[in-house]
Amino acid sequence: MTILFFGDVVGKAGREAIKRMLPAIRAEHSPDLVCANVENLAHGKGITLHTLNFMIAAGVDFFTSGNHVFDKPEGKQVFEEHGDKIVRPANLKDDLPGKGWKIIEVNGVAVLIVNLLGKVFMEKQFDQGEIGNPFLKLNEILNEVGDKAKVKILDFHAEATSEKRGMGFWADGRVSAVFGTHTHVLTADAQILPQGTGYATDIGMAGVYDSIIGVQKEAALNRFAAGGDNSIKMPLTVAEEGACEASYLVVEIDEATGKCENISSFRKIS
Question: Domains in the chain, start-ordered, CATH in brackets?
Answer without folding.
Answer: 2-212+244-269 (3.60.21.10)
